[in-house]
Amino acid sequence: MKRRQIAGVFLILLLSACGTGGTDGPEKTGGTDAEQGRTHREAVRSDFDGDGYGDLVVGDGSGTVNGTDSAGYAVVLRGSSQGPALKGSQVVTQDGLGLGKAGQVGGFGSDGRSVTADLDGDGRADFVSQAGTNTVFVVWGSAEGLSGAARLAGSAPVAGDFDGDGQDDLVITGTEENSARVLLGPFSRAGAPRRTVSLDLTPSDPENPVARPSTAGDVTGDGKDDLLVTWSHIYADEAPVPRATLVYRGAADGKLVKGPRLKDDQGKDFYGETLRTGDLNKDGFADVVAGLTCESMGEPVLPDGGSRVAVLYGGPSGQSEKLKPLRITEKTAGLPVQGPFSYCTFGSGVTVGDVHGDGYADVAFSVTTGPGDASDPDDVVTTVVLLRGSADGLTVEKAQAVPGSPGGMLDTNGDRAAELLVVVGGTGYAVEDPQKPEVQVLRGGSGGVELAPMLVVKEADLDLGPEIESKRSNTFGVV
User: Fold this and answer.
1) CA gap 108, 114 in Å, rounded
2) Predicted model pTM
3) Contact 59, 72 (CB under 8 A)
4) Where on the phi/psi map is residue 282: left (φ > 0), alpha (ψ -120 to 50), or beta?
5) What is the pLDDT of residue 237?
6) Which 3 state secondary structure label does DSSP give 70?
7) Which residues pair with 228 in a beta bridge?
8) Rounded Cα–Cα distance for residues 44 and 21 (Å)
9) Under a CB-based contact definition with an 8 Å cutoff, are residues 290 and 269 in contact?
10) Which residue, 31, 204, 244, 382, shows the most beta carbons closer than 10 Å to its own?
11) What pairs with residue 158 in β-bridges?
12) Which residues pair with 9 in a beta bridge?
């Protein structure tokens, strides 16, 4: 495999894209200027080289780089009309950016701490990843792939178009408690945003004193992305435990406006370990999907009402007044997997995307059956459940079950139907795992996902170079 040096970053090319700008990519769709702008931004969000196809990013935030434990790495796989390919991989590490050497447990490229967005407005996605506790790196897209980088102070990046001008923006959490900054695009290549707006997220509820941005989406349907903020309580000196979700409405001046406290199907606070957005019923409002498998209150316990996937439908105020929130549990009729389910596992790894290519966002999550004994992973079976979006919202009709855990949804071949990314193997329970994880790319289409993978990605198949050692390779997966 051919190696090359690009803009001071020692990389192995393995790129691709899912946007506009490439002569072989998908055609632009019609619609209003706002709709076209949003379609364009969604299209380029994972297209690093602008060829019109989505680029798949895999890696391991616990990988050892140049002898530094858990420095982390990411590998970009270039998309094409046939989907992503192993040939021409691009490996990205913090050390290779030329902006400072990675520290231990930096976790560059970790799932949950990385996003993609077109921050400089050139029609190509940029890769954004937190490393350490208060540093965010932006690695710029280009015709040759990721090239050059900028360093920002902050953590927990969330991308969206919060002022509705068609340019991607970034929200990053500050060092002061309950503070964040809205960095309005376009950015310069030095990492300077067009403008910065400070955001005070201090909760008004003393029972839940910790606030943190979680995700973004246009839940109010006004053409501006809204920020979803999680309020958390701290039990027994443990990490913050989510207890409520608020909407901060997008605004033309970038000064987000505190909105409603979201409520679930029982009129209680809506929250989850993971929040995702997508328009499930194609009504122009982004909907919110939350996964809540367990809660840590000194000891892991089932949440009130049990492990679940919850859906809240968007509306002009941030929550629909017409559509009742939905709750999916192990007792929901019509699921393609039957229990008994392992303790604190139902609804893990929620992801949202349009697998069927019909304009309705779909939802995937994992369920685990068996006793859940970590000492013997063979006793448990983890399965991805794929539910369809429809004009009536999320439905269990024609649901699919696929072995593995969900890693995301991404259109890598330009047909407007997202591929389902599934991680098989790698329990995460032990450093020495006899079944190393692999990422399977399952082709999407009108009939759902094809069970035969269009590509299988194993860490051993990637030319990572001598500088990378993945001691905990059971954590390899989709970034």
Assistant:
1) 8
2) 0.90
3) yes
4) left
5) 72
6) coil
7) 215, 247
8) 9
9) no
10) 382
11) 171
12) 6
Q: How wide is the angle at C-alpha 406 spanned by C-alphas 445 and 59, nearest 5°?
A: 110
pLDDT at 471: 63
In angstroms, the Cα distances linking 446 to 82, 83, 386, 420 are 17, 17, 13, 13
What are the start-end ranges of the E strands in 219-294? 226-233, 241-249, 257-261, 274-278, 287-292
Task: Read off the tokens for 142.
Answer: 């280009």
Q: Are 314 and 326 in contact (CB under 8 A)?
A: no
9 backbone φψ class: left, alpha, beta (φ>0; ψ -120 to 50): beta
Q: Cα–Cα distance between 108 and 106 in angstroms, integer?
A: 6
**How high is the pLDDT of residue 372?**
53
pLDDT at 16: 29
Distance of CA 294 to CAs 169, 221, 298, 414, Å? 32, 31, 12, 37
Task: List, in sequence order, every residue forming a beta bridge with 136; answer none if it has no partner.
Answer: 130, 152
Transcribe 309-360 into DSSP letters. EEEE---TTSS-SSSPPEEE-TT-TT-SS-SPBPTT-TTEEEEEE-SSSSS-
Tokens in use for 102? 């990675």
At residue 220, what is the residue type?
T
Under-50 pLDDT residues of the chain? 1-40, 373-375, 428-433
**Greatest alpha-carbon span in the chain:** 57
Tracing tokens 């069927």 back to the chain, one arrives at 356
Element (H, E) at 74: strand 73-77
d(CA 20, CA 42): 10
CA dist 308 → 208, 326, 345, 422, 429 (Å) = 21, 10, 9, 20, 23
pLDDT at 472: 60
